[in-house]
């Protein structure tokens, strides 16, 4: 029986590791590609902030594909083993309590989408990416308050370094201002991006808290449902903004004058929606497989990739303060992961000692 339990635990751990790797991949693709494609839209003539906000969560119907695959898989397993799972024919797993929580977080995400899109419209991607690195400090703070996240000296050091790295950019906020943009618009974009970092830093631990308070077993299928509802309500917020701002009427005209051509205009919109959906699904999937703090760490770890790609693709300036900020961020990443490796080794040694002590006690009896 003990061997069966041990085997079950090993299988569960293996599945969680696989899901963690998969969601880290989704998060990496979305986190690096989303801002670049969004900036591409603004650089070549797009100027609708609410439309860009909509695209961040507007790809939510994609989630129906993995949900359908999950349902078909459950049905097949039930056909092979009729005495097995009773929920094989169940389509929706989410209970009202979790639905309400995901809807509220979705509305909050919709406003956060606008804050972020406003910032990207006015800042170089390399600058906005470094500002978003400050998000980790807010994620850590809210994780401590909401889910009682435990910190080590290494994780605290990482959060401090990442926060300072983002703050360095505020020393010369107008040094990389895009041509033709006023200082007022640039500062507004800077502040909106910081606000977006604060709000999303709150959202990640809030998602983890709802998992803990759900009063039902959290499976990956349920995570998919959660993301679908969250994205749906965020999209509704953005659609209301688009209606008020008359964005739907402007889209055809904007496509005609887009710098890369009409076809590429719509391609950019579709690609943006897909990439951002990967980002959001990856973020809450990492929370499911690990924690909100680790999700924030992964987002921050991808910063150098986004930074380098932005400089290459858009020929953005790479001033001294960006170099200092990037160095501090990299130092923070190394500090965090070194601490995690050390902490995991310590836990394994403690577990080995406990098992050896328990085995010795049983032998003596």
Provide a compact summary of the structure.
By secondary structure, the protein is an all-alpha fold. It has helices at 2-43, 49-57, 64-80, 96-122, 125-132, 135-147, 153-168, 183-212, 220-244, 247-257, 262-289, 292-301, 303-314, 320-364.
Explain what the structure shows.
Keywords: Membrane, Transmembrane, Transmembrane helix, Transport. Its main location: membrane. With 365 residues, the protein is mostly helical. It has one domain. Helix content is 80%, strand content 0%. It has helices at 2-43, 49-57, 64-80, 96-122, 125-132, 135-147, 153-168, 183-212, 220-244, 247-257, 262-289, 292-301, 303-314, 320-364. Helix 2 runs antiparallel to helix 9 (220-244). It is globular, with a radius of gyration of 23 Å. The model has no long low-confidence stretch (mean pLDDT 82).
Give the helices and strands, then pairings:
Layout: H1 2-43, H2 49-57, H3 64-80, H4 96-122, H5 125-132, H6 135-147, H7 153-168, H8 183-212, H9 220-244, H10 247-257, H11 262-289, H12 292-301, H13 303-314, H14 320-364
Transmembrane segments: 20-43, 49-69, 98-117, 129-147, 154-174, 186-207, 228-245, 265-288, 293-314, 320-339
Keywords: Membrane, Transmembrane, Transmembrane helix, Transport
Main location: membrane
């Amino acid at each position: 029986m003990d061997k069966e339990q041990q085997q079950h635990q090993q299988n569960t751990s293996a599945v969680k590791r696989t899901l963690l790797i998969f969601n880290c991949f989704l998060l990496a693709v979305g986190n690096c590609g989303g801002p670049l494609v969004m900036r591409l839209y603004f650089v070549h003539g797009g100027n609708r902030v609410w439309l860009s906000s909509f695209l961040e969560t507007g790809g939510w119907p994609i989630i129906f594909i993995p949900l359908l695959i999950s349902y078909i898989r459950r049905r097949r397993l039930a056909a092979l083993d009729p005495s097995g799972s009773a929920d094989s024919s169940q389509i929706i797993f989410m209970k009202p309590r979790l639905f309400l929580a995901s809807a509220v977080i979705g509305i909050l995400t919709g406003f956060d989408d606008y804050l972020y899109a406003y910032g990207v419209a006015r800042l170089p991607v390399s600058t906005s990416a470094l500002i978003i690195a400050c998000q980790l400090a807010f994620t850590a703070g809210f994780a401590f308050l909401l889910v009682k996240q435990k910190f080590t000296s290494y994780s605290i050091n990482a959060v401090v370094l990442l926060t300072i790295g983002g703050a360095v950019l505020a020393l010369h906020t107008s040094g990389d201002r895009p041509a033709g943009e006023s200082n007022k618009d640039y500062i507004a974009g800077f502040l909106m991006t910081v606000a977006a970092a604060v709000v999303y830093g709150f959202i990640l631990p809030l998602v983890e808290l709802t998992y803990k308070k759900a009063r039902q077993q959290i499976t990956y299928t349920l995570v998919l449902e959660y993301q679908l509802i969250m994205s749906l309500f965020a999209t509704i917020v953005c659609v209301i903004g688009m209606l008020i701002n008359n964005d739907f009427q402007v889209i055809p005209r904007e496509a005609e004058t887009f710098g890369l051509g009409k076809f590429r205009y719509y391609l950019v919109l579709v690609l943006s929606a897909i990439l951002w959906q990967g980002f959001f699904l990856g973020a809450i999937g990492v929370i499911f497989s690990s924690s909100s703090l680790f999700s924030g760490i992964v987002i921050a770890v991808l910063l150098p990739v986004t930074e380098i790609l932005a400089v290459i693709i858009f020929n953005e300036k790479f001033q001294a303060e960006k170099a200092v900020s990037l160095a501090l961020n990299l130092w923070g990443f190394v500090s965090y992961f070194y601490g995690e490796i050390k902490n995991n080794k310590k836990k394994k040694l403690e577990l080995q000692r406990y098992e050896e002590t328990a085995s010795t006690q049983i032998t003596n009896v």
